[in-house]
Amino acid sequence: MSYPRPKRPNHDHGGWMKSRDLSPVERGYLTVLLWFDRRFRLVDYVETLETLYYRTNLQLPKSHTEQYNLDNKFWYWYPLYALGSFSILAYVVAAISGALLGFYYSPSTAPAGVDGDVTVAYQSITFIMTELNLGFLLRSVHRWSAQVMVAAVFLHMLRVYFTGAYKEPRELNWILGIVLLSLLLLFGYSGYLLPWDQLAFWAGQIGVELFLSVPLVGEWVAQLLFGGFSLSQSTLQRMYILHVFVFPFLMTALVAIHVGIVWIQGIAEPH
Ligand code: HEM
């Protein structure tokens, strides 16, 4: 079945191929190319890709030194411009190691162990640390990449501040950055509670009390996020769902928008 196609001016393959003196190799190559082009519109797609390539490159200046005539004064600040990308790298490492940890962790406060004196969640962490092959390494990579990411994002924010890159027209990306930093801290907090050890439990308690001290909405938020005013299975379950299901998708989407805006606006020149 054929479908209607708009008439394309450059794609009249009729007479011109015969009218030129072509070698058999050229003729064979063109015949194959045209056969595919008639069916899959190759040339259209290649042209679209070409346009996209040139637009992308327009956003990336060759070098700031060259473009703004800075005479090599600024080159030693350039590594600081990589902190945003470094945060993304740390995020990818945390995501991969986190997905692997998820195979072995169980978010349950039910009693476990010989005497039932520890929880299933805590026991699954003990299993990862002492019995799983390279489990201690996997967990350490996850914790360290998360902490390195917080440090990198904070330093990235300082770079943006001290180079004045938050100014017009980049105000919205600065605000989105604040949202990203807040989300990152909540992401870390939800993960910190998962081992359900003493540190996690009391950090959870502080969280509940923090929200309870907020006027009007505090109690409602504590109930929603922690599943009550004292810690229980509902708390751990909520933190788990936030940590593995809600925050990763939200964070990935917002980082994509953040970087998309940088791509559209281009990097700010050093002031
Ligand atoms: C998850 C956290 C974040 C990630 C992954 C991220 C990623 C990036 C990347 C890759 C860039 C390109 C330039 C560069 O790397 O320096 C960038 C630029 C930018 N970021 Fe972030 N960022 C994050 C958080 C933040 C925060 C907390 C702020 C500020 C509150 C912020 C504000 C900005 C601004 C204003 C730009 C444009 C800078 C320019 O044009 O020179 N970002 N970000």
Automatic annotation (TrEMBL):
GO cellular component: membrane
Entries under Gene3D superfamilies matching the protein: Cytochrome Bc1 Complex, Chain C
One term of GO molecular function: electron transfer activity
Xref: PROSITE patterns: CYTB_NTER
Keyword field contains Transmembrane helix: yes
Keywords: Membrane, Transmembrane, Transmembrane helix
Ranges for domain Cytochrome b/b6 N-terminal region profile: 32-271
A single BP term in Gene Ontology: respiratory electron transport chain
Family annotation (Pfam families): Cytochrome_B (PF00033)
TM region(s), chain numbering: 80-105, 144-162, 174-194, 206-228, 240-264
Listed InterPro entries: Cyt_b/b6_N (IPR005797), Cytb/b6-like_sf (IPR027387), Di-haem_cyt_TM (IPR016174)
Protein name: Cytochrome bc complex cytochrome b subunit
